[in-house]
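Thread: zinc ion complex, take 2
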Amino acid sequence: MNGHHVDHVSTTTLSRFHHHLASHDIVMRLISILDSAYICHGYPKREYLDFAHSHKGVFRNRSGEVRAQIDSSLPVLMKGEVYQSTIRTTDCAFVADSPLCDKCKEYGPVLRSTYSRWLGKSTDEISKFTNNRFLTSPQKKTKLKQLQETVVHERRERMALSQQVERLTSTSGIEVESSLHQDLFSIMKDNSSKISSQFPEGTFRRLFWEQQFQSALKGPKQMRWHPTMIRLIAFFR
Ligand SMILES: [Zn+2]
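Output below.
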């Protein structure tokens, strides 16, 4: 897929940018200097990527030209979450003065409606907020199916994240003395409401926090503190 994708972008701003700069490090450094600049995050949501994968990674317009595609050249940050791949338009500006460049912003409604059609939605918008009374029977079925898919997908994602957290703590977690354990744990307890509001449910950070909290409950002997968690706690203090 990647070889494919390079061919398609060869004439875009994006690829010119890639060819002219030696490495992503330089890009990252440049970005950090320009504090008003952003790397366009495109559309990194999982459902759009799944959708793109089912279309060989590209989206075409009615005349068959590629309008947008999967780009995995650089991880992107959106609302505090890091994504390894995203969907960008072929004319994406890449560096922009807002988190989403104008070209990608313009493409948003097209992407959303294409995605809805793909999901088998009817043209009138069925959202999860639409009251069921207003839905026809096939629409109800479609909505139910969408909800089921979302649940399955979220559950799978959550399991993968938990395993990741588990691996992380078993390889780099450390045991601490009982008194330090108590100190760390009490700071954790004092800040749990702050964490709930700052780290959204289902995110890696939230799971990491919860997993460490659950282990801490079991006492100092059973607990392996991850250095990152200790740093985070120090920050809250
Ligand atoms: Zn863009």
